[in-house]
Write a structure and sequence with these properties.
Length: 277
């Protein structure tokens, strides 16, 4: 078990479980589509590295049954406990840099929104590819490769809000802009790791009003409350913060999620590479 905090402060005690559940329910259609394009077959053995609360494990298992197996690992104890309940599968608390598996023991490693949390992402990719059987694949997924567009009707507020979020993360974790760039580096990581037949596909997660309950829960809680909220006050002009608060307030007539012109875009990028047979 690693005792060094990750780039964004991740430790074995860190608990993102509620936010992870919200994201999985929100992005389920697009994540299932991405899994469906991997060519998984019954009998395959899959590792979900950074499995979070386990929703994707269930979807991966559907693709490899009968006879297949999906195992999950995550650094956080709260996540592995939740994943074990959710997926009814084999889940271990472990650092992916030191995963407790034999080399060449998986047909696919699925790893979403995880390597960007590592201080050395390339080291993480190398550790995971060592677990692949000849001809096996690694699939690195990353949301928000392209900046999110929360306010399709107000580009200026969108711009200052997104910049405020970036400034918060730089200050909170004492990081430079360059150190936060790993979100955009998934294609380069697989090529630098020597993977072959590297492909990339970006899906657009697009939501318009009226929203599904899962969409409103994710946007309202994970984005409006947890990503924005009070912590952005110091990074925004008073009038911009006041406008943001109104748009995020379910009791306000301008509440963003119930506006007829609400239009949300978020990308999900999946990069897949394979090792030599």
């Amino acid at each position: 078990m690693s005792t060094t905090a990750g780039l964004l402060g991740d430790t074995a005690e860190r608990d993102y479980a509620h936010k992870l559940r919200l994201f999985s329910a929100f992005a389920e259609p697009e994540l299932r589509r991405a899994i469906g394009g991997l060519g998984l077959l019954p009998g395959m053995r899959v590792l979900d590295a950074g499995c979070g609360t386990g929703e994707a494990m269930a979807w991966l298992r559907e693709a490899v049954l009968p006879g297949g197996e999906v195992i999950g690992i995550d650094l956080a104890a709260a996540h592995t406990a939740a994943a074990a309940r959710q997926a009814s599968a084999h889940v271990l608390q472990a650092d992916l840099l030191h995963a407790p598996f034999a080399a060449s023991s998986f047909d696919l490693v699925w790893c979403v929104n995880t390597v960007n949390h590592l201080r050395e992402p390339l080291e993480g990719v190398a550790a995971l590819t060592a677990l692949l059987r000849p001809g096996g694949q690694i699939a690195l997924g990353q949301s928000s490769l392209v900046p999110d567009m929360y306010f399709a009707w107000d580009a200026r507020l969108e711009r200052v809000t997104n910049e405020a979020v970036r400034r918060y993360y730089r200050d909170r974790y004492r990081l430079s802009e360059r150190e936060l760039a790993s979100v955009r580096s998934v294609l380069g990581l697989l090529r630098r790791a020597g993977l072959r037949n590297v492909t990339v596909r970006t899906l657009m997660i697009e939501r318009v009003s009226p929203l599904r309950r899962a969409d409103e829960a994710y946007l309202g809680e994970a984005v409006f409350r947890d990503t924005w909220g009070e912590r952005l006050r110091r990074y925004l002009a008073d009038e911009d913060y006041a406008e943001l608060v109104r748009l995020c307030d379910p009791g306000d007539s301008q509440f963003a999620l119930r506006r007829p012109d609400f239009h949300f875009l978020q990308t999900f990028t999946l990069v897949v590479g394979e090792i030599a047979s």
